[in-house]
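Q: What does the predicted 3D structure of Ribosomal RNA large subunit methyltransferase H look like?
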Amino acid sequence: MKITLIQLGKTEDSYITDGVDKYEKRLKHYINFSTITIPALKNTKNLTVDEQKKKEAELLFKHLNATDQVVLLDEKGKEFSSVQFSAHINKNMNRAVQNLVFIIGGPYGFDPKVYERANEKISLSKMTFSHQMVRLFFVEQLYRAFTILKGEPYHHE
């Protein structure tokens, strides 16, 4: 299985990029993991929120295949504990999912067509985080999930 994280806009704060890089390197020991960064839209002052979401959706769809299992990181999605999330990852591996794609949307969320395409939505918390922080939290949780699956001492319960 391959796991891909698609994110809109680049990460600007070095402390976040350093953290993301740290966990991406660690993940390589467990899974084929990659990140796709779609550049943030420019000249959005004259666009409505719906128009921005539609343009972002068009960019996202260029990176998706029909067979991808698409998971939106969405505040209204299902919540998991770290152990439950690791079991969810394991379930996808056992189902022989070829490419599990997680998507972090833009500042206004997702276009309705992206929600239609998604296979599921998950939430990292009931709290709202910046899109920059979500990147770090997600890759750390993904790393944690694999250490749980391997019985390694990273996660304490």
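A (community wiki): The structure tokens above were generated from the sequence. The beta strands are 2-8, 32-38, 69-79, 99-104, 120-123. Residues 131-149 form the longest helix (19 residues).
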